[in-house]
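Allow me, if you will, to draw on your knowledge of protein folds for a short while. I have a record of one protein: its chain in single-letter code and its fold written as discrete structure tokens. Could you please explain, in whatever detail you think fit, how the structure tokens follow from the sequence? The record follows directly beneath this note:
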Amino acid sequence: MASWSGHERRCTRPTAGPRIAIDALLAVYNIPRISQVQLIYRATLADPAIAAGPESLEVAMFNWDDIPWHDLAFPSVRWALEQYRARTGQAAFPPASNPPPPVEGL
């Protein structure tokens, strides 16, 4: 039986080419509109070589302050990056879930 970390490596490698080391489950997002549950893991690059693959037009590494927030394709990417930032330096933490919906008028 394959381990979860083996599964994540197989799912990640074809799209962007990185070799990664899984650290911890960062978040579980439920996206009912598209019938998806997304498991987002905190990981580090085991090899700094990255390249676009068949599902990516381009890939790039950014310093935090240089992330092109307006160009992120999916809300869950923003959520995951925000959760990563909030948990930096924490060895153990519960996985995050969907953020609350925005309140109108605020």
User: Anything to note?
Assistant: The first strand starts at residue 19 and ends at 31. The domain at 4-87 is CATH 3.90.79.10 (Nucleoside Triphosphate Pyrophosphohydrolase). The chain has a mean pLDDT of 82.
